[in-house]
Design a protein that fits this description.
By secondary structure, the chain is α/β, with parallel strands linked by helices. It has one domain: Rossmann fold (3-Layer(aba) Sandwich), CATH 3.40.50.1820. 42% of the residues lie in helices and 17% in strands. β5, α4 and β6 form a beta-alpha-beta unit. α3 crosses α4. The radius of gyration is 18 Å and the shape is globular. The C terminus is likely disordered.
Length: 312
């Protein structure tokens, strides 16, 4: 990846939405990883976790609609300029819990609101379950990987050693790459997105660490799904133990991996959860920004302020 080209494309996306983010690297000790973060605003701290194969710039249109927040968007491992990770043999829930706790400690934050999309929502649900004291509330947008029982077998090819990393990171003609994005987030979302966002997303997949990170993550995820008992698919008992306020925002066309009826049934097991359907697909704020932004804003505004001493 040409780092300068990626950073310029990403900066163009934020400028499109009149945002002037602060960008910096944060070095963690456990796990040892350098994460890049993009911050906008200075209100209630809210951590944004994007999905795999996307990038922090995907949050730009939504962040522009949430000016009262201190929005902290992390480049997930292997994405943007964050370090890559080999996830072979790693317990994903435990690893990401340690990563996010270390990240919050490094920023001096005892707890935050969490907004996760796709795989980011899977990670957010795990944090709300395993470290609830660090989560003020959780917004999960789109199918959260396998957490609620989605069947994502079409991704298994990307988990295969050798061929998986190659398929993920190999150069692709612009038309072919747009077709991949259409299958991921939907035609309307791709057609509505600024061209700079498409370019930034593609350039972010051209890092050497990207293919290995995503492929080994998927390999471990599928090994967990196939295990008995399963790992990573949240049980009814686990969902019932999530005691944070939760908003699940689901695009009406996000039905490629899981039916809406099934998601409603599973979401109802979370004691303090709300399930809201909005227009659009897997990344619904690109289809209909106003609908998703209204749901997220209304939910977060109702949460109590978290002005408390830093976690020790």
């Amino acid at each position: 990846m040409n780092k300068t080209s990626f950073l310029n494309a990403e900066a163009d996306v934020f400028a499109t939405y009149s945002l002037k983010p602060k960008v910096r690297q944060v070095q963690l000790q456990k796990p040892r990883i350098s994460l890049r973060i993009t911050e906008v605003g200075d209100g209630e701290p809210t951590m944004f976790l994007h999905g795999f194969s996307l990038c922090a710039a995907h949050w730009a249109p939504l962040l522009a609609q949430l000016p009262s927040l201190r929005s902290i968007a992390i480049d997930m491992p292997g994405h943007g300029t964050s370090d890559g990770v080999d996830f072979r043999g790693v317990n994903l829930r435990r690893w990401f819990k340690d990563m996010l706790i270390g990240f919050l400690d490094e920023l001096g934050l005892d707890s935050v609101h969490v907004v996760g999309h796709s795989q980011g929502a899977f990670i957010g649900l795990g944090l709300a379950l395993d470290a609830p004291e660090r989560v003020r509330s959780l917004v999960a947008i789109g199918t959260p990987a396998v957490a609620l029982g989605a069947r994502v077998d079409s991704l298994r090819m990307f988990a295969r050693p050798g061929i998986g990393p190659l398929l993920l990171s190999m150069p692709k003609p612009a038309r072919a790459y747009r077709g991949i994005l259409v299958r991921t987030i939907g035609l309307q979302a791709v057609e509505s997105a600024p061209e700079e966002l498409i370019r930034a997303t593609y350039l972010g997949t051209q890092r050497r660490a990207f293919g290995t990170t995503v492929s080994t993550y998927l390999r471990e995820m599928f090994e967990g799904v196939d295990a008995k008992p399963q790992r990573y698919v949240l049980t009814d008992e686990e969902l019932a133990r999530i005691d944070r306020p939760v908003l699940i925002v689901w695009g009406r066309e996000d039905i490629g991996y899981q039916t809406i009826a099934e998601v409603r049934e599973r979401a109802a097991l979370v004691p303090n959860a709300r399930f809201e359907l909005v227009p659009g697909g897997h990344e619904p704020w690109l289809d209909d920004l106003a609908s998703t932004a209204q749901q997220v804003s209304d939910f977060l505004v109702r949460q109590p302020s978290g002005d408390r001493p830093a976690y020790v």
